[in-house]
Amino acid sequence: MLALYHWEPNANSGKPMLALAEKGVEFESRYLDLLNFDQHKPEYLKVNPNGTIPAMVHDELMLTESTAIMEYVDAAFDGPPLRPRDPVQRWRMRWWMKFFDQYFGPSLSMIGWSIFIGPSVRSRDPEQLKAAIERIPLKERRIAWSKAIYGTFSAEELAESRRRAIFGVGEIEAALTRHPWIAGGSYSLADMNGFNMLYAVPLSLPEHCNDQATPHILEWLRKIYERPATKKIWAMGHTQMAARVTYLARHT
After folding, report:
1. Does the reported pTM lie above 0.85?
2. How many Cα atoms sit within 13 Å of 215 on the Cβ side?
3. Are 197 and 11 in contact (CB under 8 A)?
């Protein structure tokens, strides 16, 4: 059995979805509505007691952490390799995945939580929201949800996240001027990782990420969007959030 518990095909959930699709591996999709707190309900906590998504169940093994799942998928299943053979490029792939996961992604996430996730649930019954926060198993996730719902990210936190996001855009553009893919000459897990975070940046930071300021990023995003695996995965979205990616379609 191979089942993937996920939300919309973006950010963390989209990473293993895209890796599985690129490998040509069929999986059972178990959609969890993050905005309905499905990931904190008892039935899912039996699968993943930490209440985080995505999670993948392969036979008797339960795996968490989206980037680690991507590497597992590449190693465990037949299909085209998603990690470079060249040791320098493989190092570069892992360097970029750490950059996306630990520096760039959290900054984008805070911006997204403050302008989308929080406002999307803020109007619900206050007592229900309080109970939903209290059910979250991990303390750091309770804090993040609380800040998003009640709009208590500080101005300093948001400013620093924006600064890091803009800096990250510059670093990624510079890397893509040197080679066609983020780790070098071949499409890899690092590109999938980055795409899931970056595809909406031209919409959220249009003055810093656009065809004039960052032409290599935009071309890179379009090339990934055109891949059959990407089209397949983004068609699995349940909300308008997934439809945002269509702006990358080339107009002839």
Report:
1. yes
2. 3
3. yes
The whole-angstrom separation of Cα 98 and Cα 174 is: 17
9 and 234 in contact (C-beta within 8 Å)? yes
C-alpha to C-alpha distances, 174 to 96, 182, 207, nearest whole angstrom: 13, 10, 17
Question: How many whole angstroms separate alpha carbon 231 and alpha carbon 221?
Answer: 13
Residue pair 223/198 in contact by the 8 Å Cβ criterion: no
The 10s digit of each residue's pLDDT in 202-216 is 988 999 999 999 999
- Check: CB of residue 214 under 8 Å from CB of residue 168: no
- Please provide residue 214's backbone torsions phi and psi, each rounded to the nearest 5 degrees: -135, 65
Whole-number Cα distances in Å, 175 to 114, 207, 249: 29, 20, 23
pLDDT above 70 for 252: no
Map residue 4 onto helix, strand or coil: strand
Count of Cβ atoms closer than 10 Å to residue 119 Cβ = 13
Cα 100 from Cα 96, distance rounded (Å) = 6
